[in-house]
Amino acid sequence: MLEVTHLQKLYRTAETSFEALRDVHFTVAPGEFVCLVGPSGSGKTTLLKCMAGLMKPTSGTVRVADKAVAGPPEGLALVFQEYGRSLFPWLRIAENVELPLKELKIPGKERGARVAEALAHVGLENSARSYPWQLSGGMQQRVAIARAIAYRPDVLLMDEPFAAVDAQTRADLEDLVREIWRDLKITTLFVTHDIDEAVYLAERVIVLSSTPTIVQREMIIDLPSERDQLSTRALPRFSELRHDLYAEIQKAKTHSALTLTA
Amino acid sequence: MKAAQSILHTLALPVVLVATWWVVSFDSTNVYFPSLQRILQAFPATWLDGGMESRLVVDGFASVWRLLVGFVVATVIAVALGTLIGLLPRVRAYCEPTLELFRAIPGPVLVPIIGLFAGIGDTMKIIVVLLGCLWPILLNTVEGVRAVDSVMIDTAKSYRLSPRRRIVKLILPAASPQILAGMRQGLSVGIILMVISEMFAATNGLGFTVVQFQRNFALPEMWTGIIVLGLLGLVASVFFQIFESRSLRWYTGMRRAARDA
Amino acid sequence: MSNRLDTLPTFEVRVNTSALSRRRFRARGRATNTLLGCAGLLTVALIAQFLAPLGIVRAQDLPPTTVILAAFIDLLGEATMWMAVYDTIYVWAIGLVVASVAGIVVGVLLGSSEPLRRATSSTVEFLRPIPSVALVPLVVLVFGPRYESALVLVIYAAFWQVLVQTVYGVADVDPVVADTARSYRFSRWGVMRYVIWPTALPFVMTGIRLAATVALVLTVTAQLIIGTPGLGQSIALAESGGANARMYALVLITGLLGLAVNIVVRLVEKRVLAWHMSFRKDASE
Q: What pLDDT, in 10s, does the model give residues B61-90?
C-alpha cells in the first residue's frame, strides 16, 4: 500500500549539501499498523514530508496505492502534531471535517453523513457547531483525526500526533487510534519518538538511524491484537519488546548510514 | 444595573464636555468661535431645509458616494493584487520598491495630478480616494498573506485543495485580521482625501460646502459643517466596527480563548 | 567506538558549513531581489516614458520620464526647493513631537486607571474619527497661511494615533506581573518605570510610526490647500502655473521624503525596541 524505495534527500545549497536521508527503504502492507521511531534529528520529518508529497526527494520513489508520489497523493491523509495550527480557526468543527470532502466532489447529503459518522467515531458528535479554539487540545486532535477518517484515505500518516497533549488524554487517543484502525482497516503509519507508544500501538516498528538516515531495524510486535492500557502494558512480552526497542534507539543515536554500512 | 452603569460611563464625559462648551461659549463675542447655541440654531436651516433637496442629502450623498465607491473598488483591487503579490515571492521582489515609493507619496499631492487626467468631476475624486485607500490595504494584505501558518498550508496541500479553494478557504480568512486593519487605515485616509479633493476643486460635496461657508464668513454655518464632517467620520467608523466585529468573530473568540488559557 | 569518533566530528562540520552556505545563499537571494526590485522601478519609468509619445496620454498631462527627471535635477539646484523641504520637515517634526509627547502622557494616564479609561473611551472613540481636515476652514480663518495652521492639523491627527496605542499598551500589562511588582512594594514610579513602560513601549512605537505617516500627509495637505510654505505649496504653484514636469518632479521629491520618513522611523523603532529587548532580557536574568 505504501512503498518507500531507496529514498534519498539532500539539502543542497550553493557549495555544500546536507544529507538528511541516505537510503530509506521499507514497505507497509495494506491494513497494517506501522510505527516509525528514531532519535531526534533522524530525518523523520523529512521522510514524512517526502511521503506526503510536500517535499521532493533527491532520488528514490514513494508509491501510495501503487501510484508514484509527485505532489500530495490521492488517498492519503496526514495528521499533524500541531493540531492548533492544522485546523482552520474560522471554520466550525463540522466545516473543518467537511472541507476536504468538498474537494472530492462528494454530494452534500453524503458529505453530511460522513462528517456526522466521523465525528461520532471520535466522540465529538455534540461539538459539530463549535470552533476549534473552544475545544481542549486533545479534542482538537480528535477533530483532526475525524477529518482524516471522513476523507476515507488508503493511507493514514500521523506525525507525532500526541506529543503535545497530557498523559491521560494521550492514552485515550492511543486507544482511539487503535480502534479506528481495527474498525476501518486503514493502513496507518504512525511517527513517534515515544517507545512505549510505539510498542503499544504497532504491529511492526521501523527504527530509523541518525542522519544520514537509513532504516536501522524492523521489529515485529507480536502482542495480541486486543490491547488495553492496563493489561497489555503489564505483559512480560511488552516489557521485553520495550527493552529491545529502547536498546535499538540508544544505538540509533550514534548510528547513521556512515557507521552502519561501513 | 450593569447596562445603566455602562450607559452612564459612555455618556457622562461627552455630556460634560458639550455642557462646558455651551457654558463657556455662551456669551462669546469672538467671531471665529460663535456660541454653541448659535451654531445649533443655524444647523437646521443650513443642513435640513428642503427635504430631499437639503444640503445634508445632496452634498452628503455626493461625498458618501465618492468615498464608498473609491473605498470599495480600492479594497477589491488591493486584496486581489495583495494576495497575488503575497503568494509569489518573485512578483513581490519585483514590485516591492515601487510600492514602497508610491505608498510614501502623501495622498493629497495626488489631487492635482489626478485632476490633470480626470478633470474636477466625480471621477477625479473617486480615483483620489481609491489611490489613497489602496496602499494601506495592499501592504497589509501582502503581509497577512505572507504570514499564513505553514502547517495550515501543508494541511491544505495534503488534502489536495484546489488553488481556488485554498485562497478562499485558507489564505483570505487567515489574512483577514490584517486585511481589515488595512481597510480601517484606508477608510480614514479615504475620508481625508474625499474632503480635500472637494475643498481643492468641486461644485458640491461636504468639503466644498464647508469651504464655501468659510469664504463667505458664515461662521456658525461653517461650524455646523465641521460638526457634520465629524459625524460622518464617526458614522463611518461605527459602521466599519460593526462590519469588522462580524467578520472577525472567530478571531476575537480565539484571542480571548488564548488569553484565558 | 573509533567509528563513532570518526563520524561525529564530520557531522558537526557538515552542519556548520551548511549553515554558512545557507547564509551565503540567502545573500545571493537578496541580490536577486534587489535586481528584481530595480527592474520593477525601471519598468514603471519606461512605461511613463512612452505613454505620451505613443499618444496614450497628452504630453502635458504626463511628461516622459526623462523630462521629469530633468526637472528633478533642476530642482535639486534650487534654493527655494530646499527651503520647501526644510519647511515641510520642520512642521512635520514639531507636530510629531508635540503629538507624541501629549499622546504618551495622556495615554499613560488614561491607560493606568480603569475607571478613567472607561469614562473617557467613548469620548476618545468619538473624537478620534473626526477627520482633522474638517478643521481646515477654521485654521484658515484663525491663522491664515502660516505654520500654525499646519501644526494644528498635524497635531490633532497624530495625537490620536499615539494616544490610542499607548492606552492599549498600558492596559496590556500582565496583571500577574503588576501584582508581583506591587507585592515587592515597588514605588509607583518603579512600577511605571520597570513594568508599565517596557510593556507599553512596542505599542507606543507603533503609534508613533503611524503618526509619522499621518503627520506628513497633513503637513502636505495644509501646504496644498491652505498655502502654508513647503512642498505642497510648491506643488500647488507648479500646478496652477501649468509647469507639469516640475509638478511631477516635486511629487517625486515629496515621495522620496515620505520614503525617508518611513525608513528613519523604522530604524528608530528597531533601535528603541532592540534596546528594549535586551533590557527585558537583562531584567529576566
A: 999 999 999 999 999 999 999 999 999 988
Chains that touch B (3 or more CB pairs under 8 A): A, C
Chain B 48-107, residues with CB within 8 Å of chain C CB atoms = 90, 93-98, 100-107
Q: Which residues of C2-33 are buried (b: 16+ CB within 10 A; e: fewer)?
A: eeeeebeeebeebeeebeebeeeeeeeeeeeb
- Tally C-beta pairs within 8 A across A and C: 34
For A118-154, how does the pLDDT look when each residue is reduced to its tens digit (9 = 90+)? 999 899 999 999 999 999 988 999 999 999 999 989 9
| B161 in reach of chain A (CB within 8 A) | yes
Homologous superfamily (CATH) of B44-260 is: MetI-like (1.10.3720.10)
Task: Say yes or no for a CB contact (<8 Å) between C232 and B116.
Answer: no
Please report all neighbours of C, defined by 3+ CB atom pairs within 8 A: A, B
Mutate: best of C14, C16, C30, C32, partner A, most A CBs <10 A: C14
ipTM: 0.87
Interface with B, mutate which of A50, A86, A90 (most B CBs under 10 A) = A90
Amino acid type, C8: L
Q: Which listed CATH number (3.40.50.720, 2.60.40.420, 1.10.3720.10, 3.40.30.10) goes with C65-284?
A: 1.10.3720.10
Cell of A143: 477533530
